[in-house]
Structures are given as structure tokens and as C-alpha cells.
Automatic annotation (TrEMBL):
PABS domain boundaries: 2-236
Residues reported in the UniProt entry to bind S-methyl-5'-thioadenosine: 31, 106, 138-139, 163
Protein's UniProt name: Polyamine aminopropyltransferase
Function: Catalyzes the irreversible transfer of a propylamine group from the amino donor S-adenosylmethioninamine (decarboxy-AdoMet) to putrescine (1,4-diaminobutane) to yield spermidine.
Top-level division of the source organism's lineage: Bacteria
EC class name: transferase
Reaction catalysed by this enzyme: S-adenosyl 3-(methylsulfanyl)propylamine + putrescine = S-methyl-5'-thioadenosine + spermidine + H(+)
């Protein structure tokens, strides 16, 4: 009989995946890690009882994390990925020919090593690319102390529990803002808003208190059980959001980037939020703007509700 590996993140219900073959299981200094084969999902990685990726659908998350911010930029050159030791986001970042340095800051070297050993199809040759720079460090500390300035910072963290909780705080986002160029873009994952609207609310509130423009967007990630998956965007440059499908298509063609999920139409549609998500986002932006005004940091002169 197959072993069943259960997600333990949800307090009132469970999802179990058949582990046809357990490839690797270990408790590191930072997290509990298990990798196994499943006939539907391919190779599955679970950290601390939460499904993080499968080789069947990883392209969706990684493309939307990377191409939504980078396609909005004219010529992204310096990109930082915080977390993402599996190499999937880094792989997509390096598809952009203008990128001169793609830095990955991962707290746990074993995440990278296990990716290369057990699902090498995800990173591919990413870590051998001469533009890749891998730093094994606490992402919060690295961002706070770096002197470099990035066109985009992509926070590919796990859920806000355990060590990853530090990558979901206003203090961390403020450090990210400092490490961005003036027109840079910050993107982070925000979980499942149907089940955990507080995650999206808290990040949006923090973003609105720091940046002129906040724009959560969504995708459908099959292995993240519980509804559409949210990501969040922040920038001080409004032109990044006022891009057309025609311009996106032209950039994709010029850059020679092939995708399986991201398209210019999907890019634009991802920012169209369901009402239950809009309600959370609008209130969080309103509260964040008020906090910003009270703290004397100024108010965005061009608020646009969910795409403020």
C-alpha cells in the first residue's frame, strides 16, 4: 500500500498525496523536507507539511513570479530572488537577455542540493549560468545590508510560518524597497486569499504604506489546494502597470522567451481580481495609505483601487 503524505497547514481539513516512492526525507536546521514521486504530480516537494512545488505544474508559479515584473520592465539588468532554492524562478529570470546578474539568496543550501539531485529538470543549467550568483544567507539580513540596487526583487518564500515568517513583515519589505532602484518592482507570493485573506491583507497594507503603486495579481496553481493563488506587486513607477498586450507581445518576441502559462493576455488579466479579493485589497490599501500619511511619508496622488 502506498504511503500517504498529508498537508498539515490547514487547521480544519487535510489533503493527502500518495507517495509512490519517497526519494528524500530529512529534518534540517530550518525545516522538515520530504520529496516523493506521485503519478499525477510527478516529483513533489513538501516543506513543513505544506506542498511547495510539483514538477507537473511548477512552470505556472515560476513564470508568473518572474515574467509579470520583468516583462513590465524595459531592460531589466539586476534581479534578486529571495528564497527559490529550487531554481525555478531563477530559470525564468535568466530567459531575459538583458539580465546581467541574477542573484539568488537562499537560507538553506540543502534546498538547492536536493533540487539538483531529485528534480534537476526545474533548475536545469540555471546555477551554471555565468550571470547567476548564489548567496547562502538569511534573506532578511542580506536585503537589509546589501549595497546593490536591483531592477526587480522577487520574494519566492514559503508560507509565513517558521523561518519564512520574517520574509512577510513590513520591516523586510522596507528593506526591499531600499534595495530597489527608483523604478524597481517588488513581487512576493501571498498564498490563497479564499482561505487566508489575512496574508494578502497584511502584505498589501505594508506595501501601500511604502510604495506609490500596489497591485496584487492571481494565477491558478493546481497543487496549491484551496482556490486561486495570489501574488503581490509594488513599485513607485505607475507606467509599469499601464502596459498594453501589444507591447508585452513585442517584448516577448524580441526577447525570444517561450512560456507555457504566461501570455500577454494572461499578464493583464491576472490583475483583474474577484470581488472577495478586491474587498480585502481595497481596504488594505486604504489603511496603508492612511498610515503612510500619518507617518509623513506622503500619499499616492494617483490611487487606482486594486491597481493603486
Amino acid at each position: 500500500m502506498d504511503r500517504w503524505v498529508e498537508e498539515t497547514f490547514h487547521p480544519h481539513w487535510r489533503v493527502r498525496l500518495a507517495a509512490d516512492e519517497v526519494l528524500h526525507e530529512v529534518k534540517t536546521d530550518h525545516q522538515d523536507l520530504v520529496i516523493f514521486k506521485n503519478r499525477t504530480w510527478g516529483t513533489v516537494l513538501m516543506l513543513d507539511g505544506v506542498c511547495q512545488l510539483t514538477t507537473s505544474d511548477e512552470f505556472i508559479y515560476h513564470e508568473m513570479m518572474a515574467h509579470v515584473p520583468l516583462m513590465a520592465l524595459d531592460k531589466p539588468k539586476q534581479v534578486l530572488v529571495v528564497g527559490g532554492g529550487d531554481g525555478g524562478v531563477l530559470r525564468e529570470v535568466l530567459k531575459h537577455p538583458s539580465v546581467e546578474k541574477a542573484m539568488l539568496c537562499e537560507i538553506d543550501r540543502e534546498v538547492i542540493d536536493t533540487a539538483l539531485k531529485y528534480y534537476p529538470e526545474i533548475p536545469g543549467n540555471t546555477f551554471d549560468d555565468e550571470r547567476s550568483v548564489v548567496v547562502i544567507a538569511d534573506g532578511r539580513k542580506f536585503v537589509a545590508e546589501t549595497d546593490e540596487r536591483f531592477d526587480a526583487i522577487i520574494v519566492d518564500s514559503s508560507e509565513p510560518i517558521g523561518p519564512s515568517a520574517a520574509l512577510h513583515t513590513p520591516e523586510f519589505f522596507a528593506a526591499c524597497k531600499h534595495a530597489l532602484k527608483d523604478d524597481g518592482i517588488l513581487v512576493t507570493q501571498n498564498g490563497l486569499p479564499f482561505l487566508f485573506p489575512d496574508q494578502l491583507r497584511d502584505t498589501t497594507h505594508a506595501f501601500a504604506g511604502l510604495f506609490d503603486h500596489v497591485a496584487p495579481y492571481m494565477c491558478t496553481q493546481p497543487c496549491y489546494f484551496g482556490g486561486p493563488f495570489a501574488l503581490n506587486w509594488a513599485s513607485n513607477e505607475d507606467d509599469h502597470l499601464d502596459i498594453t498586450a501589444k507591447k508585452l507581445a513585442k517584448r516577448q518576441e524580441k526577447r525570444g522567451i517561450e512560456t507555457r502559462y504566461w501570455t500577454p493576455a494572461v499578464h493583464l488579466a491576472a490583475f483583474a481580481l474577484p470581488r472577495y479579493v478586491e474587498t480585502v485589497v481595497w481596504q488594505a490599501i486604504f489603511d496603508g495609505r492612511n498610515d503612510r500619511a500619518k507617518n509623513g511619508r506622503g500619499k499616492n496622488k494617483n490611487d487606482k483601487k486594486a491597481r493603486a
